[in-house]
Structure formats: structure tokens, C-alpha cells
Amino acid sequence: QSVLTQPPSVSAAPGQKVTISCSGGSSNFQDYYISWYQQLPGTAPKILIYESHKRPSGIPDRFSGSKSGTSATLGISGLQTGDEADYYCGAWDHRLGAWLFGGGTKLTVL
Amino acid sequence: EVQLVESGGDLVQPGRSLRLSCAASGFTFNDYAMHWVRQAPGKGLEWVSGISWNSHTWNTGGIGYAVSVKGRFTISRDNAKNSLYLQMNSLRTEDTALYFCAKEGGDGFDHWGQGTLVTVSS
Asked: Distance between CA atoms of B20 and B38, rounded to whole angstroms?
């Protein structure tokens, strides 16, 4: 049912910036509000971004979100080893009546 | 502080049933849609089901299901007990997963429980 596509993995050095893409194959993508989640090993997911670009309180501004056309992007700047995690994008598809998740991206901080 | 605590996970045989519960605290439970999201071992997140606080999200009485569980799983909530439930019938081996309870907020899932493990195996 998932129509959100993420790269399986990305990597970058500490202090650098990385971007993770989330692309939509559905014509509904333009209507999506994209949310992003961080899942550290062995823990529950945590929301980083909602409504494509907004940060919940307590999320540092090193994390940013954007959306344009049929793609959304999560940016993480000033990478830290503690950022090593799986990252997922998600969206509500009102025509399907279902929440969708991307397949997840594993971030490695070299 | 928002807390979501799942329970009810177990090892069950294929074809059997199981009921999961999620106890919520720290927010006005009946003001928010609630969901179940699962994660099979080593796999990604999969939305299972959601229940609105009213009927505006889904036409079917404010409840939605993933195609993979529709007709087998039933979500419900007891606002008086601040609790969310998932009745799972006709379980299959592919239902094996960690099941998370999640609160919807701001067009996303803003709080998650730690999950309860369901293993379907003979």
C-alpha cells in the first residue's frame, strides 16, 4: 500500500549535513502533509517534523523539512553520532483513507 | 507528560485471536485520533488502523484499516477508561510484529508507546 519511496541508506561524516528524500508515486502526493520520524535502535519512533516543515517543541533546528512537487526532504545538519538511526517519512492519504510510511532510511554517521 | 503503554502481546498460533490494549495518560484522550502501527522484525513501519475522536476522518464511522488487516482486525476505544484496543482475529504468521500505539497530532503521530510484541507461529 506504501507509495512513499526513500533511499535505503545514507551516510555522512560528523558535523556535515545530510538530506533524506521521500518521493511519492501517487498523484495525491501534492495533497500530503509529510511527517518525519526518527527511530533510534531498540526504541519507538519519535516525530521530528510535521506538516512537511514544522518542528515539534524540543526538536533542535538541526532538523529541517521541506516539500516540493512530488518529493519531500528531511535535512539534518551538524551531524552527531547520536543521529545514527532509521528515518521514516509518513503521510495521510485522504483518498485511500490510510496513513502511509516510506520504507525507511538508515543513517550512518561515519 | 503523555504516556502510552501497550499490553497484550503474546505468542499465538496461526488462526487464533489476540486483543491488544493501550493505556493513555497525560492528555485529553477523547480529543484525539489514535492509531496502531506495527513493525515486523527488521522491517519498516506499517500503519494498521486508526480511530477518530469523531467521524470526520473516515466515512466508515470514524475508523480506518490497512488493506492487509481489514476484516480480521477491529479497533475500538473506551474514552471513559482512556484506552485503545485492537482485537486481532484469524492471525497469520505475517502479522508477527511489534505493535505500537500512537497518538495523532498535527498531521502526524506525535507520541508513541514502546510497543507490545505479537508473535504468530505454530
From this structure: 12
- Those residues of chain B whose CB sits closer than 8 Å to some CB in chain A are 35, 37, 44-47, 50, 58-60, 64, 66-68, 100, 105-110, 112-115
C-beta of residue B103 within 8 angstroms of C-beta of residue B110: yes
| Closest-CA distance of chain B to residue A79, Å | 23
Q: What string of pLDDT tens digits covers the 122 residues of chain B? A: 999 999 999 999 999 999 999 999 999 998 899 999 999 999 999 999 999 876 455 555 688 999 999 999 999 999 999 999 999 999 999 999 999 999 998 789 999 999 999 999 99
A36's grid cell: 518525519
Instruction: Name the residue among B47, B100, B108 with its Cβ closest to that of A44.
Output: B100
- Angstrom distances, CA of residue A36 to CA of A63, A77, B110: 10, 15, 10
